[in-house]
Amino acid sequence: MKNLSYIILDGNLTSDPEEKTIAGGKSLAHFTVAVNHSQNNPDSKEKDDVSFFEVEAWEKLGENCVEYLKKGSKVTVMGNLKQNRWKTPDGENKSKVKVTASTVRFDSMRKREEKVA
Question: How does it assemble (predicted)?
């Protein structure tokens, strides 16, 4: 039986998405979504109840994110959790959990201004 690691995030981008091309020519966009938990509970007195999730979006989905999203944009991201593990040069084990987006809903869509060369 296949295990499930699906997540849905509703929040705002903390910075503009960044795009890069990896080996093999595939494009990848990275961005971080801030999710405010106190919004979901009006009785909460916590002001700093925010979680930050790193998101990666591949190919056309990532290209659309780079074109239409910017810092502060409201999004709903659906995707899978992925844990990356590595060793530092001094032998310390490290890991980071990211979200690999399958869908990104642009809840406050505005086309980014064209960059002037």
Answer: Homotetramer.
